[in-house]
Design a protein that fits this description.
Number of helices: 7
Number of strands: 19
Low-confidence stretches: 73-78
Radius of gyration: 24 Å
Strand order of the largest sheet: 7-19-14-8-11-10-9
Distance between the termini: 70 Å
Shape: elongated
Structural class: alpha+beta
Mean pLDDT: 86
């Protein structure tokens, strides 16, 4: 009798190989704010608050022969955040498994890879949603419990805010005044120690700015340019940011940057996306961005493939500045 050994497709090595064969998923917030270099695997199931709130700043120099300056506090009390897992499943019935016997090993591998692709795409979209919410300085996301649904809430702190004296949509707002707004938002971030500033605009904010720039008279002293991705004003680049996610509670579409707002972010701030240890023995109880494992079911007969991840995007609230720029 022909048997199909599914286990060989679900080892950490096999999963890693399949993931490397799959196309890259575009996720605007993760790609821009939490790129690969800022993603960390954390080998514990919890994160210490002191690990993620440490502020890196300059210190005095030390006279030769004197003690070094400690960069952590003296308090021995440690508080923890317990990241909640993302777990999704796909059922492979006994009927489907019987049909797989008719396929070659390569076709079976492709079939399983497609299953893995669906699971990892769903997990990735969920991590993107959490990342988008983190830009507000907090996460408030739907969480399934044994009794129904609750809210997964993590607070990191208040972000910076800049209040305009006059909105960009005002008829008498000038491009020079808009330039001053950008400079002031950058100054707030500079004061916190961040200098690599990205300006991310919601759709209405971008259109308001584009209208002002396109309305400049020829020969204007301010050099400005509009294209489909960004508007440049005197060297400052304002990007249109269309990152969205679905609110699982009501199915509504949410913008990472709301239409009327501008978000200035210090990209050199220590933003980090942690992947904590997965609660799965077959995964070795270690940190992985994604893992999948099969579980036998009897009624109905088949295999439930469960994809897992335990992500926590950690923003730097003082590296984020919000402004409402249009009415």
């Amino acid at each position: 009798m022909l048997e199909i050994d599914l286990r060989k497709y679900f080892t950490p090595k096999a999963i890693a190989q399949m993931l490397s064969n799959l196309p890259v998923i575009k996720t605007p917030v993760m790609d821009r704010i939490y790129p690969e270099a800022k993603r960390k695997q954390h080998q514990l199931p919890v994160l210490g608050i002191n690990e993620i709130t440490q502020v890196i700043k300059n210190v005095p120099v030390v006279r030769r022969g004197t003690p070094a300056i400690p960069i952590t506090g003296d308090s021995q009390q440690i508080s923890y955040i317990e990241p909640q897992p993302v777990e999704v499943s796909s059922f492979l019935s006994a009927t489907e498994m019987n049909n797989l016997k008719l396929l070659s090993d390569k076709s079976i591998e492709q079939f399983m890879q497609d299953k893995i692709d669906t699971l990892r795409s769903t997990v990735r979209k969920t991590v993107e949603a959490l990342s988008a919410q983190s830009l507000t300085g907090a996460i408030s996301y739907s969480m399934k419990t044994s009794g129904g649904f609750d809210t997964y809430a993590v607070t990191f702190g208040s972000t910076l805010e800049f209040v305009l004296s006059k909105l960009w949509s005002a008829a008498d707002k000038t491009v020079g005044e808009i330039l001053k707004d950008l400079i002031e938002m950058a100054r707030l971030l500079n004061e916190k120690g961040y200098s690599e500033i990205a300006y991310l605009a919601g759709s209405d904010a971008y259109i308001a700015l584009a209208n002002k720039v396109l309305g400049l008279p020829s020969g204007s002293n301010i050099k400005a340019e509009v294209n489909e991705k960004a508007i440049t004003i005197a060297g400052f680049s304002v990007e249109i940011f269309n990152g969205v996610y679905i609110n699982p509670t009501d199915g509504s579409t949410q913008n990472a940057v709301p239409p009327k707002k501008l978000c200035a972010i210090g990209l050199d701030a220590p933003f980090a996306l942690y992947y904590c240890a997965i609660d799965d023995i077959e995964a070795g109880l270690v940190a992985l961005p994604f893992f999948a494992s099969p579980e036998k079911k009897k009624n109905p007969s088949g295999i439930e493939i469960v994809g897992k991840s335990k992500p926590l995007p950690v923003p730097v609230p003082n590296g984020i500045c919000w402004a409402e720029v249009t009415a």
